[in-house]
UniProtKB/TrEMBL annotation:
Protein name: Glycerol-3-phosphate dehydrogenase [NAD(P)+]
Organism of provenance: Salinihabitans flavidus
Entry function: Catalyzes the reduction of the glycolytic intermediate dihydroxyacetone phosphate (DHAP) to sn-glycerol 3-phosphate (G3P), the key precursor for phospholipid synthesis.
Subcellular localization, as worded in the UniProt entry: Cytoplasm
A GO MF label: glycerol-3-phosphate dehydrogenase (NAD+) activity
Segments forming domain Glycerol-3-phosphate dehydrogenase NAD-dependent N-terminal: 3-152
Pathway entry: Membrane lipid metabolism; glycerophospholipid metabolism
Annotated positions binding NADPH: F11, R31, K101, A133, R248, E269
PANTHER family to which the protein is assigned, alphabetical: GLYCEROL-3-PHOSPHATE DEHYDROGENASE, GLYCEROL-3-PHOSPHATE DEHYDROGENASE [NAD(+)] 2, CHLOROPLASTIC
Catalytic reaction(s) noted: sn-glycerol 3-phosphate + NAD(+) = dihydroxyacetone phosphate + NADH + H(+); sn-glycerol 3-phosphate + NADP(+) = dihydroxyacetone phosphate + NADPH + H(+)
Length: 319
């Protein structure tokens, strides 16, 4: 069994290291030939995951034709997923596992739905849950969710993708799994802003809890199974991302709270996802006040204190 990983960023590289270390032959595709050559020679992704060595079982290439292994993981940022599929029609008719966390601008769709639209003859799955690339690459223990609507294919993917340090749980609820991974990024921006502005950890706990309620409302509106968000892909990842400075979404929030600039070259999925989700929530008439406030903060229409006032001045209601 071989695995191909498309996208040689931090997460694609970390997954390649974990799978390769477990003995699986992995082909890691970087779109830039110079990047692929440098990684293949130095055995390291010095730009995105410095200090983590690629095992011998991992081959890095920019030749797309070399990458059609038994299992294909798509580890690119959410807003580029459709163009990757569009540019490579040979991906259709295969089993594709999305590793990205986000909602597409313009369509309001998550990764599995985008794969189904752009490559209609594929079986799509998603690998999501609490995990920092650096932790995975260091061999630290992690537990993730593998969601695939096809029960048998999901079971076989679960077997193929476990590694000595990645334990996989399985579900058929792709809608719930992709929403959890996407929306926790929006909540992490809000929590980072709260801490960055010095509003305290009690305020963050309140935001995480109300954010979780908000995530569940959207999940229900889109037909996700009620329990999915209480698992690794929802609650688990919300907890990790809203409390760790390893998270890029949380760090963007910290910068907003402190009134500092943030490096725009860093992948922060929650920014586009907040906008896409706010638009979808309006269509579905679903109340998502924290998401709306995050969009206003990102657009610099309000500051953090005003954001908190907006949330605190909402009509009183039952929990
Ligand atoms: N880094 C983490 O800890 C982590 C953990 C879990 C999930 N994820 C998810 O993985 C996804 C990727 O994040 P990352 O951390 O690897 O980001 P990253 O910024 O480190 O890397 C993204 C990579 O995608 C490549 N890329 C962008 N557009 C592409 C395209 N059209 N075709 C091919 N390659 C393209 C870039 O060149 C870059 O190498 C995100 O959705 C993120 O939420 C990341
Ligand atoms: O660095 P972030 O904020 O993209 O978070 C990485 C992972 O999604 C955490 O599970």
């Amino acid at each position: 069994m071989s695995v191909s990983i498309l996208g040689a960023g931090a997460f694609g590289t970390a997954l390649a290291i974990a799978l390769g270390r477990g003995g699986t032959p992995v082909t890691l595709w970087a779109r830039n030939p110079e990047t692929a050559k440098a990684m293949q020679e130095s055995r390291e992704n010095s730009a995105r995951l410095p200090g983590a060595n690629l095992p011998e079982t991992v081959t890095v290439t920019a030749q797309f034709a070399d990458t059609l292994g038994d299992t294909i993981l798509l580890s690119v940022p959410m807003q580029t997923l459709r163009s990757l599929l569009h540019d490579h029609p040979e991906l259709d008719r295969r089993t594709l596992v999305a590793c990205c966390k986000g909602i597409e601008l313009g369509t309001g769709l998550g990764p599995v739905a985008v794969i189904h639209e752009a490559a209609p003859n594929t079986t799509a799955a998603i690998l999501t849950g609490p995990s920092f690339a650096a932790d995975i690459a260091r061999g630290l223990p992690t537990a993730l969710t593998l969601a695939c609507r096809d029960h048998d294919i999901g079971k076989s993917l679960q077997q193929s993708l476990i590694t000595p340090n990645i334990r996989l749980y399985r579900t058929t609820d792709t809608t719930g799994a992709e929403l959890g991974g996407a929306l926790k990024n929006v909540m992490a921006i809000a929590c980072g802003a709260t801490i960055g502005a010095g509003l305290g950890e009690s305020a963050r706990a309140a935001l995480m809890t109300r954010g979780y309620a908000e995530m569940n409302r959207m999940a229900a509106a889109l037909g996700a199974q009620p329990d999915t968000l209480s698992g690794l892909s929802g609650f688990g990842d919300l907890t990790l991302t809203c409390t760790s400075e390893q998270s890029r979404n949380y760090r963007l929030g910290l910068s907003l709270g402190r009134g500092e600039e943030f490096d725009t070259s860093i992948t922060v999925e929650g920014a586009a996802t907040a906008r896409a989700t706010a638009a979808r929530a309006a269509e579905l008439k679903t109340d998502m006040p924290i998401t709306a406030v995050v969009v206003a903060l990102l657009d610099r229409r309000i500051g953090v204190s005003e954001a908190l006032d907006t949330l605190l001045s909402r009509p009183l209601k039952e929990e």
